[in-house]
């Protein structure tokens, strides 16, 4: 029987890979949630996703965004499961550097300073 849990932590703690096959999603917070747990992410190359995943260095960017694109990328990922922990660590490091409250506040202040 399904049960409610407080946040995504318990599910992410058991995950080997998070797949985000969205065709349109500006800034998927679930990617940051996975990165916070060092869970590797595979996500469609839409909107901000490639930048969030450091263009493939901190996760798997799926392109083209199609069933065949996903099939091909997942086959590559599953062919080397030993690589998943290091991809998860790089995602965690990217999240810590760019997407914490402090890092994002600094980025906003830098943008405001650049305009003023």
UniProtKB/TrEMBL annotation:
CDD domains: GT4_PimA-like. Pfam families: Glyco_trans_1_4 (PF13692). Keywords: Transferase. The keyword Transferase applies. Signal peptide: none annotated. One of its GO terms (molecular function) is transferase activity. The keyword Metal-binding does not apply. PANTHER family: GLYCOSYLTRANSFERASE. This is Glycosyl transferases group 1 family protein.
């Amino acid at each position: 029987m399904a049960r409610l849990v407080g946040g995504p932590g318990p599910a992410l703690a058991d995950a080997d890979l998070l797949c985000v096959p969205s065709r349109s999603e500006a800034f998927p917070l679930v990617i940051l949630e996975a990165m916070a747990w060092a869970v590797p992410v595979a996500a469609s190359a839409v909107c901000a996703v490639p930048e969030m995943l450091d263009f493939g260095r901190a996760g798997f960017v799926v392109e083209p965004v199609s069933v065949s694109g996903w099939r091909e990328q997942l086959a590559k990922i599953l062919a080397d499961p030993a690589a998943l922990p290091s991809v998860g660590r790089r995602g965690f490091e990217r999240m810590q550097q760019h997407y914490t409250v402090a890092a994002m506040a600094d980025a906003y202040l830098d943008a405001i300073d650049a305009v003023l």
